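Researcher: Please translate sequence to structure tokens.
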Amino acid sequence: MDKFAALISSFRYPGPRASGLHAPLKALVEKKKSIESRKLIFTRAKQYAEEYDAQEKELVQLKREARLKGGFYVSPEAKLLFVVRTRGINAMHPKTRKILQLLRLRQIFNGVFLKVNKATINMLRRVEPYVAYG
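Model: Translation complete:
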């Protein structure tokens, strides 16, 4: 067998010789990637922790300022609601049924996320016996 045929056969059928040359290099590259990804994960976690600490400190500061001024701190209301339909359609007023359709709550135990505004609050008041939300 000449050199050219041996070279072609090693490319076609990678044996222990062909794969053995690159294995340590691959392992080194994989190890380096995993170290970099762990560093990235750690820095992101540290950044999130710092953000949450800053939010906590700001909340404490706002409460202190309100107490010094003789008032109370009222936290802002939620901007998003999750609404679940809990009752069926028996003996339901047509307007209530229409509101449930507008809220995309056509079946029992369906749920939707809603943005809180005056219109959705008014609709929820009308259908309160048929839904649970929070």
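Researcher: Any highlights?
Model: Residues 80-133 form a domain with the Ribosomal Protein L30; Chain: A, fold (CATH 3.30.1390.20).
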